[in-house]
Amino acid sequence: MRIGGYQKMTLIDFPGKIATTIFTVGCSFRCPFCHNPELVLGSGMGEHGNQEEEFFEFLQKRKGKLEGVCITGGEPTIQSDIVSLSKK
Question: Are strands 3-10 and 19-24 parallel, antiparallel or unpaired?
Answer without folding.
Answer: antiparallel
